[in-house]
User: Which sequence fits this backbone?
């Protein structure tokens, strides 16, 4: 008997404390930020212990606490599932949140509502942990909706700005469409397997029909911004940079992928669901990578990069490799959060300038940020032996050597090379060349609140891949032998992308400005997807229904068909048939002549 | 037939032609109607008395009653027309024209 349970529940309970303290005096002064940050650090250390226990002795646990309600035959309890996925994810998430909270003590320093900001970040973290540790679908749904709501509140943090409100609403709407899929799956599981507990679902029906898995794929597409439900993620960059770093790069957007990973015993038996996930992921990764090539806002480029990596994770699930996808989630969190923190440092130091066409030459001015940015971009592209390599390369190897859809594979490889291209673009425009911003004198990175988080994430994004792959228990047999050209696929396409991008970028140094081509406009406006899909279908739907009810039903059927037609026919008939002229004398004269004529004709004796 | 009957029938015919061929005043039509009624009354009374057809002795009285009602209606119409147009010229009666 060990303290596994105690440490897990302690981790979750520690995080509740600042929420409860928000009613007291501590909330009013600026000690609250340090308090929240230190609480997150404590939670991280207490969560490391069960993770170490798992790695050492492979001990998993299922904690079932409190029987809430029994509705006829459905028993709902508060239950936590501590297995490989949740035990590995919790320390990663807590580490990144700790770093981001320390960063946002510097970034949001001048914000008057900074204590509320920290409370919102903490609430988000709690709901994310509820999602990750849930053992039944009801608790997962609570966490799911919770992260959606916190995302809304945090994206619209600067609510005085109309674009921020629109983006927050857009996030909620697209997530809602995914929720429909989730509720569909919940209803199917309830009516067919009589439970929402994961254990019973996996035990009863090893190969379900397509409907619940399609619902789960739809939910993942909504939450993880797959193609068709993707525009909310670039728009979510309206929120502050710590929000983008935490929610929309590391934690919330992986919730959809995490859901599919949780259901991997069902996914591995259904070829159709895997094919759907594969195609959707391949399409997403290529489309968003192409869109990232022509964006000019540094946060949007990184957002599209996140979207592309999410597509890659979906492709991995489609290849029936959930553990690789999970590894990619963990490593991707590190370098993506670090990229966002570096971009936050650049933005704040250039006085809130986000357009990369107006940055440049930061190589010498911000050396530490430069280092972190370059290491992050290299880790993103899968440079050998950095963090991204240990997760991305096995994915590409598994894709090239498995019996799968060749089109999806081709798209994924193209997107990998495009990753290198837009990473080079970021580095080239922000760091190299001559400065293109007005001369500012207070560019510095001396603040330890800024440096320490980036330093920690830098160490993490270099070493995490190595540490994780050497310590996790192997769940699937990795592929050991493959031809040399397949093994070097990822590396060669990435190198090609780097060389190509550098050449093209050098060529654009001294060009005359030409008008953007139609293709570039296509990409800059995200393939016209938001332009067409946000206005046109709702307008068509609403105007059609209005015309149906007003013109057709009300005017036509109830007014024109019977009453007006009848009156119209009567009036026309009466004007046609009645032709009185009032010539009385003539009428009387005609009587007389008729009578005399008849008298003569019938009385004449002949 | 006897000369008396022919006389009365001639009177009726003259009134009838006068009803159908009046020129401008509605009043002449009404007067001709009265003349028709009168001649008819005399004719019916003459024939009934001459043939001792006692059962039909009430016919002249009933004829007179109905003729009186109809004369009243005719006069009422004349008064209405005279109120509307000031005169009773027939050319004014063209409201049904379309």
Assistant:
């Amino acid at each position: 008997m060990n303290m596994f349970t105690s440490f897990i529940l302690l981790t979750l309970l520690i995080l509740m404390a600042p929420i409860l303290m928000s009613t007291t005096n501590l909330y009013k002064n600026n000690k609250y930020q340090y308090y929240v940050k230190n609480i997150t650090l404590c939670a991280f250390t207490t969560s490391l212990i069960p993770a170490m226990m798992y790695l050492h002795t492979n001990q998993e646990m299922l904690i079932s606490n409190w029987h809430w309600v029994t509705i006829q035959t459905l028993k709902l309890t508060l239950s936590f599932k501590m297995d490989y996925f949740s035990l590995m994810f919790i320390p990663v998430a807590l580490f990144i949140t700790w770093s981001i909270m320390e960063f946002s003590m510097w970034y949001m320093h001048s914000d008057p509502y900074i204590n509320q900001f920290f409370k919102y970040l903490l609430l988000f973290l709690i709901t994310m942990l509820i999602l990750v540790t849930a053992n039944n679908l009801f608790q997962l749904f609570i966490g799911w909706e919770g992260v959606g709501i916190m995302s809304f509140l945090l994206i619209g943090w600067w609510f005085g700005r109309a674009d921020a409100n629109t983006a927050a609403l857009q996030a909620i709407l697209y997530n809602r469409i995914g929720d429909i899929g989730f509720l569909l799956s919940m209803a199917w599981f309830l009516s067919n397997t009589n439970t929402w507990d994961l254990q019973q679902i996996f035990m009863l029906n090893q190969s379900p029909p397509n409907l619940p898995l399609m619902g789960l794929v739809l939910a993942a597409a909504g939450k993880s911004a797959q193609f068709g439900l993707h525009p909310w993620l670039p728009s979510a960059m309206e929120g502050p940079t710590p929000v983008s770093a935490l929610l929309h790069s590391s934690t919330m957007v992986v919730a959809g992928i995490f859901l599919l990973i949780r259901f991997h015993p069902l996914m591995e038996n259904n070829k159709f669901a895997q094919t759907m996930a594969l195609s959707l992921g391949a399409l997403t990764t290529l489309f968003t990578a192409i869109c990232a090539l022509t964006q000019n806002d540094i946060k949007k480029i990184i957002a599209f990069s996140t979207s592309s990596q999410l597509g890659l994770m979906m492709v991995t699930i489609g290849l029936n490799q959930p553990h690789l996808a999970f590894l990619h989630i963990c490593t991707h969190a590190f370098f993506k959060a670090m990229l966002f923190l570096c971009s936050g440092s650049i933005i704040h130091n250039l006085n809130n300038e986000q357009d990369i066409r107006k940055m440049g030459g930061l190589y010498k001015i911000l050396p530490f940020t430069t280092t972190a940015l370059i290491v992050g971009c290299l880790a993103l592209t899968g440079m050998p032996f950095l963090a991204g390599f240990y997760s991305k390369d096995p994915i590409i190897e598994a894709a090239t050597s498995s019996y799968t859809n060749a089109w999806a594979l081709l798209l994924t490889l193209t997107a990998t090379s495009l990753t290198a291209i837009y990473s080079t673009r970021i580095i080239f425009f922000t760091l190299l060349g001559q400065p293109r911003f007005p001369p500012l004198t207070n560019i510095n990175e001396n603040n330890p609140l800024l440096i320490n988080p980036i330093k920690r994430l830098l160490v993490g994004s270099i070493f995490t891949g190595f540490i994780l792959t050497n310590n996790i228990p192997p769940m699937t047999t990795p592929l050991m032998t493959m031809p040399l050209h397949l093994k070097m696929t990822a590396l060669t396409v990435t190198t090609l992308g780097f060389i190509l991008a550098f050449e093209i970028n050098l060529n654009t140094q001294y060009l005359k400005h030409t008008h953007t081509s139609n293709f570039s406009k296509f990409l800059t406006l995200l393939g016209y997807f938001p332009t067409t899909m946000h206005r046109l279908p709702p307008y068509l739907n609403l105007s059609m229904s209005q015309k149906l009810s007003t013109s057709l039903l009300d005017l036509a059927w109830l007014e024109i068909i019977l009453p007006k037609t009848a009156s119209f026919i009567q009036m026309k008939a009466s004007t046609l048939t009645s032709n009185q002229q009032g010539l009385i004398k003539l009428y009387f004269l005609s009587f007389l002549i008729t009578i005399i004529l008849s008298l003569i004709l019938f009385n004449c004796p002949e | 037939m006897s000369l008396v009957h022919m006389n009365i029938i001639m009177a009726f015919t003259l009134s009838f032609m006068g009803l159908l061929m009046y020129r401008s005043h509605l009043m002449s039509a009404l007067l001709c109607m009265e003349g028709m009624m009168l001649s008819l009354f005399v004719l019916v009374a003459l024939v009934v008395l001459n043939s001792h057809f006692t059962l039909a002795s009430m016919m002249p009285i009933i004829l007179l009653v109905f003729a009186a009602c109809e004369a009243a209606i005719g006069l009422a119409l004349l008064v209405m027309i005279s109120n509307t147009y000031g005169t009773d010229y027939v050319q004014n009666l063209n409201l049904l024209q379309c």
Summary: Chain B has one domain: 3-91. Residues 59-85 of chain B form the longest helix (27 residues). Residues 3-91 of chain B form a domain with the Helix Hairpins fold (CATH 1.10.287.3510). The interface with chain A takes residues 17, 19-23, 90, 93-98 of chain B (CB under 8 Å).
